[in-house]
Amino acid sequence: QTQREVQTQLDQARSRRQALQGRLASLETLQQAGLEKADKTRNQWLKEHALDTAPRIAEILKVEAGWESAFETVLGEDLDAICFKTPSPLTPLPQGARGEIP
């Protein structure tokens, strides 16, 4: 290969890296938005049960590089599930709430 070909490949690799870094930043922003505690009803319920500061699964699990997509695919919306140190009795959710806070 000539020096010019190698330089072209290097430039392409750098460009791809930059695009991937941009995509990663976008995905991290979306993920963070998904973790936001913006819903007032939910926040109130969490606060009433002293869970408003409890960590979410996505905040505590460490995922090996390359497995992020599988991790997010398997857990889906459960990434926002609350982690407990010790189980405590909670007010049951209304019938048919399907895991969502009223």
Overall description:
This protein has 102 residues and is mainly α. The chain has two domains: 1-36; 37-86, no CATH class. It has four helices and no strands. The chain is elongated and about 70 Å long. It starts with a helix and ends in a 27-residue tail after the last helix. The model has no long low-confidence stretch (mean pLDDT 79).
Fold topology:
Elements: H1 3-35, H2 40-48, H3 57-60, H4 68-75
Organism: Thiothrix lacustris
Keywords: Coiled coil
Protein name: SMC hinge domain-containing protein
Question: Any descriptors?
Answer:
102 residues, 4 helices, 2 domains, mainly alpha
What's the short version?
Keywords: Coiled coil. This protein is mainly α and 102 residues long.
The count of β-strands is 0
Radius of gyration: 21 Å
Largest sheet: none
Please count the helical segments: 4
